[in-house]
DNA sequence: TACTGATAATCAGCATGCTGATCAATATCA
DNA sequence: TGATATTGATCAGCATGCTGATTATCAGTA
């Protein structure tokens, strides 16, 4: 059998494992309690106020069933408001609160630091190249997962 | 805020998400029901018969508390045996069964196919380079997660 | 308008993956 | 030896992330 280090799937799992650990450590160090997934959701809602849950899911490539719990917890923390949409009574519109905005601003340096830390073994050029290759592989595989990335305008 | 596509953490999550989806699809297509994590454990135990759980965890960089459930399910499926160690009564020695060996052999082509599929957007050279960069980044960040990779001999 | 199909959100159920705790057994050292 | 620390496995609790189902609503069409 091939060595683990020759298996892209294993390497993907390890890199993601480290990325999450680094993110949580940096964020906790900064005095916050927010997961990578919660951060991505909060950030996307801040950029797209009033977005519906299903659109949000597409924006950051979450499964639609996962988003319910993530939004629940962000609402619980007082960072989000979830209203029924007036346009479509099935949908829920998401808006960031003032507390959410403050947290998002305050946490940004820690998030940036985490992104640097998870690439700390690479030169700047290698880091750029890794991101390019990941983007390319992801683009080709986008529709292979149940939660593909979707452009908001295309919906 | 930085675009998601410039965040290594986001790219790591997406790539891992696609890798798991591809793995499960290929394996199911081949008529098997095994997760990436279960496959890695089974494979490692096959190569290291009689390994203890904590050593196994280090070999494939699992958290020690995760391994209990994974091994439970593999025992349930009849692919593993878990005996108390005679050397150390706290420890459990893991051995692969004949059924486990057969499944491991039979599933290998699907696993290999999955590794190719998750890199299908890249040239061969790019795929190799992506794996090199991931290995390098992982090596530098190994100790940042609670479940670092550990060499069996070094324990 | 009534029917049909699609869609948004949610849910139950299951598998990772973590934190922090507990328990039993082992190792270390005064 | 005896006290202390460490270690292997497990557990409770929580958050992702998926499959497949359900419910309410909407959209298109006969």
Automatic annotation (TrEMBL), chains A, B:
Residues 8-139 form the HTH marR-type domain. Keywords: DNA-binding, Transcription, Transcription regulation. The keyword Transcription applies. The keyword Transmembrane does not apply. It comes from the Bacteria. GO terms for molecular function: DNA binding; DNA-binding transcription factor activity. GO terms for biological process: response to stress. It holds the Pfam family MarR. PANTHER family: TRANSCRIPTIONAL REGULATOR (PTHR33164:SF95), TRANSCRIPTIONAL REGULATOR, MARR FAMILY (PTHR33164). This is MarR family transcriptional regulator. It comes from Bradyrhizobium archetypum.
């Amino acid at each position: 059998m091939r060595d683990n280090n020759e298996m892209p799937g294993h390497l993907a799992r390890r890199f993601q494992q480290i990325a999450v650990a680094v993110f949580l450590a940096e964020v906790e160090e900064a005095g916050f309690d927010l997961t990578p997934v919660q951060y991505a959701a909060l950030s996307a809602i801040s950029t797209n106020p009033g977005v519906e849950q299903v659109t949000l899911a597409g924006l950051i490539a979450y499964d639609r069933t996962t988003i319910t719990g993530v939004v629940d917890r962000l609402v619980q923390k007082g960072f989000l408001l979830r209203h029924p949409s007036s346009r479509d009574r099935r949908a829920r519109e998401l808006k960031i609160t003032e507390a959410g905005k403050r947290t998002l601003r305050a946490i940004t340096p820690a998030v940036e630091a985490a992104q640097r830390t998870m690439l700390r073994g690479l030169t700047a050029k290698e880091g750029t190249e890794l991101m390019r290759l990941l983007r390319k592989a992801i683009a080709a595989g986008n529709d292979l997962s149940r939660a593909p990335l979707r452009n908001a305008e295309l919906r």
